[in-house]
Design a protein that fits this description.
Blueprint lengths: L2 H29 L16 H26 L3 H18 L8 H29 L16
Helix pairs in contact: 1-2, 1-4, 2-3, 2-4, 3-4
Length: 147
């Protein structure tokens, strides 16, 4: 496992997730004038957009930690990672509809959460594929199956 590259990819993913949250708020509230519902966010910064971006980045780093743990302990880390992040994303999509707000604000928040989740899943799955090294058996390599 190349942990340094995994965490560098996780940090880059956190930046992208934060930017998606920021752009999502700007589009939803600024362009479409929809008041997004406020999901549970980290209490950092003075504005909703900053708290949303910081929370998205923090969750991307948590996902990186989960990917690292799975890579060290499970036989198929990308499969388990996909399920975990996929289900967490589903929670993020459904959660706004359980909160007070307009239907437009709930949909806008759900869409932004979905895009953040898909981003984290796709980027970290790719990073995981490049940072986990599968050990090979010693000796000559086997010919490809098509020969």
């Amino acid at each position: 496992m190349d942990a340094g590259r995994l965490w560098a990819g996780g940090a880059a993913t956190a930046v992208v997730a934060a930017l998606i949250a920021l752009v999502g708020v700007l589009i939803s509230e600024g362009l479409f004038d929809l008041q997004m519902v406020e999901p549970p966010l980290l209490p950092v910064g003075g504005s909703f957009a900053v708290r949303y971006a910081v929370t998205a980045a923090a969750l991307a780093l948590v996902a990186t930690g989960i990917a690292h743990l799975l890579a060290l302990t499970t036989p198929r880390p990308r499969s388990f990672f996909g399920w975990i992040v996929g289900l967490a994303t589903l929670v993020g999509v459904v959660l706004p509809f359980a909160m007070e707000g307009t239907l437009g604000g709930q949909v806008a928040t759900a869409v932004v959460n979905l895009v953040i989740g898909v981003c984290v899943l796709s980027l970290l799955s790719s990073v995981l594929a490049r940072t986990v090294v599968v050990p090979r058996a010693p000796g000559p390599s086997a010919p490809p199956p098509w020969q």
